[in-house]
Design goal:
- By secondary structure, this protein is of the alpha/beta class.
- About 40% of the residues lie in helices and about 20% in strands.
- It is elongated and about 70 Å long.
- The relative contact order is 0.14.
Length: about 375
Amino acid sequence: MIDAGRQHTLPYPPATARPWRVALIAALAFLAGGGAPAAAYKIGLSLPMSGNAALLGRQFQDGARLALEALAPGGAVELVVVDDGCDADIAELAAADLRNADVRLVTGLLCDAAAFAAAEAFQNRSVPVIIAGARSERLMKDRARHDWQVWRIAPADADAARAAAQGLSRRWTGRPWALVDDGTVYGRTLADEFRAIMEAAGLPPQFADTYRPAQSSQVPMLRRLQRAGVTAAFVAGAPEDFAVIAGGAVEVGLEIELAGGPSLDLLPWIEQRAMVPDGALAVIEPDPSSLPAAKDLTLTLEANGIEPEPYVYLGYAALQVALAARRDDPAETARALSATVFGTVLGHVDFDETGINRINPYRLYVWQGDSFRPIEGDGE
């Protein structure tokens, strides 16, 4: 929900709708500088431009540059891009480069290592750091401990469990349900977080189990679910395993409603998807190209031959927040970040007093055909 007492911003109008304003700003900058244009406001982008995550870094950069062209043309704002490699040592060097470039605000930071490096590097300079992608819980705890000037757009890892519990508690009240995971760090963490929230709501699982991942069959585990008499199960694991479990349930005649977490956003792209019957549930983030707020950007991407990848939208959204919050005084920028509800192509961004985005993007989806579709009524 949006707090009516907070300041709200909407996405900027297209540059073509305000040419007089751009011309006026340029003229004032020329006069104020005694005939020379004012120095550009520098926004640092710390991104993995090399290494395994380089593709995501390039996609983010594409989105950020599109936002800059649309929302702040004319050279008043400059992007300074550094390669953090999603590596702690490289990220420290990247943060030093941004310090030397005298940036006024930093964003990007798709990986935890880069986010920690930037938070520490700019702690004593009071330069606001807007984390777009890193999701470490410790990062935001350290923010309070070290008084870091950090705000995070990305959801926390635990947000998926919270959204899953919110949606599934309504569906599974009064039903015996099971909790199964693959024993990995991802699976066990998601399962534990989901269990804790469901138990707090008075809905503990009637059965819990762990399966071996990457098996061609999960029939033994499904037989155990059958004997336990459960009619629903939350599966915390990889999409390939989820598909095998879903297909196996049909094979053994087990009528069960299966649900899973964020890893299932990859289900439409794997071969095993054909094994999954209609009705399976997943708590995932929406496809950005399907969001009403992103319609214009999606059309722009199509017109420019740019693939509508999620990190392109994330880069655009991060720049929308950065441009709307920027002030000459970093302290004023920090206040704007804490007191404003920002409109972006990904929806609203609303930071709480701890710097965390209040808006949980995860939603409950249902599998139909070969893709997930939103469930009506499962929104903000």
